[in-house]
Specification:
Structural class: alpha+beta
Radius of gyration: 35 Å
Mean pLDDT: 81
Helix content: 40-55%
Number of helices: 14
Low-confidence stretches: 394-408
Order of helices and strands: HHEEHHEEEEEHHEHEHHHHEHHH
Number of domains: 4
Distance between the termini: 77 Å
């Protein structure tokens, strides 16, 4: 038994402020004011409306998640495989990311770059010499150079705290291409056109919001001669000096001079084009305004998950299954699977009806239904059996209830036998 005495507790106790690392602070490695391994959008994606769209998609994909699963002989889900790969996908991907954060990082990088590399960092065997190895640490990287059988990937090195380029064989990394590449990443795609329009709108806003006055001054004399032009320039310089040195930005001019302000909104179709391209991008991605603000109906969400989320999940799962599972493992029923909680978006009143129907139709047990609504399992042994609680069943002692069909049938047989004897 462990020793819980006061002396033992004092010897084994640890305090973050008193038990400090004896390593000098200057030997801790590289340091940053911001998280260095964080995914940053590029190519102007960080300054446009597509940032919120990419973030919404990556969050929804990560909410479903992936896992290393075992299938039965009929291809049905049987159980989770307790492997290093499953631990990376569900709990601990690397030193900086959980499994869910890792999947979100993969999708965000894929939507931004168009293609992402899922790279094993730590394995229990050399992947360059054997195809059968276990993955203990995994990260998402940006492909910076392509070769016939290899790729150069930019990865964050958690041991040095810097991003470094590593050359991988293609059979060792899962290279996932964005299924929505034609809509998001092509040079003339809808997303790229929308980003260019937004850049133009930002430029116009900055120009209109600058400290320039953008005005004309009508002089009471002509400026065809050099002497008159010099006089006009002196008047302008005088006004600029007055405005620069004035506390409240006040200046004066001659009573015969007239000032015309030109700082007015531009009348063009740019805003209408942006609204049109935004709606077009939403429709091509299977997203609506209601999905973004959280007011979408279950039918709309189902269409969104079917058209947008499922293709991305399938692309990631198929590529990881192809690269990280050997042919022998796939033959024995191992796979990379994903299962969405179908009851997450169902209201409570409808959820109770659906669970009641599934229990009576022997689709799920009572404890499985209790788990969905967040209740602890019941100790009743019948709660783990596929039974219909609305139908009387044979008791565990072997006795039959009085109103069961078997009892009535036996009584009828007894009456017939008595009549025959008579």
């Amino acid at each position: 038994m462990p020793d819980f005495s006061i002396g033992s507790r004092l010897k084994q106790a640890w305090n973050a402020f008193f038990n400090k690392d004896p390593t000098p602070e200057y030997d801790l490695g590289s340091s940053y004011y911001h998280r260095p391994d964080r995914t940053h959008y590029t190519r102007g994606n960080d300054r446009s409306i597509v940032t919120s769209v990419f973030n919404r998609i990556s969050l929804d994909v990560a909410s479903i998640g992936l896992k290393h699963a075992q299938l039965d002989k009929d291809g049905r889900y049987e159980k989770d495989i307790l492997s290093g790969l499953n631990n990376c996908l569900t709990l601990d991907a690397n030193l900086d990311q959980t499994g869910r954060a890792f999947i979100q990082d993969v999708v965000a990088s894929m939507m931004d770059e168009g293609c992402v590399a899922i790279c094993p960092i730590v394995t229990d065997d050399d992947p360059t010499k054997s195809d059968s190895y276990g993955i203990e640490n995994i990260r998402a990287g940006r492909i910076v150079q392509w070769h016939p059988s290899k790729v150069r990937v930019e990865l964050y090195n958690e041991f040095t705290g810097k991003k470094e380029e590593v050359v991988y064989q293609k059979r060792m990394v899962a290279i996932v291409e964005n299924p929505l590449y034609a809509v998001v990443n092509e040079p003339n795609s809808t997303a790229k056109r929308l980003m260019r329009k937004l850049s133009l709108l930002d430029f116009i806003d900055e120009r209109n919001g600058s400290d320039k006055l953008n005005m004309l001054i009508q002089l009471p004399y002509g400026t065809s001669r050099d002497r008159l032009r010099d006089r006009a320039q002196k008047n302008i310089a005088s006004i600029e000096e007055q405005l620069a040195n004035s506390r409240f930005g006040i200046a004066y001019t001659d009573s015969a001079e007239h000032v015309f302000q030109l700082n007015r909104p531009l009348d063009n179709t740019l805003l209408g084009q942006i609204e049109f391209l935004t709606g077009l991008l939403y429709s091509q991605l299977g997203i609506t305004k209601e999905i973004m603000d959280g007011t979408a109906t279950p039918e709309t969400m189902l269409n969104y998950y079917t058209r947008t989320i499922e293709p991305i999940l399938a692309a990631i799962a198929d590529e990881m299954k192809r690269k990280f599972l050997t042919q022998n493992a796939r033959t024995r029923g191992q796979t990379i699977a994903y299962y969405r909680d179908q009851f997450r978006l169902v209201p409570l009143d409808k959820l109770s009806e659906m669970l009641g129907t599934m229990i009576t139709n022997r689709v799920m047990t009572s404890n499985e239904a209790r788990q969905i609504i967040g209740m602890k399992p019941s100790d009743d042994p019948n709660a783990d059996k596929l039974t219909n609680p609305n139908v009387d069943t044979v008791e565990s002692t072997g006795k039959v209830s009085e109103e069961s069909p078997k009892t009535k049938e036996s009584e009828d047989k007894g009456e017939i036998q008595n009549v025959e004897e008579t």
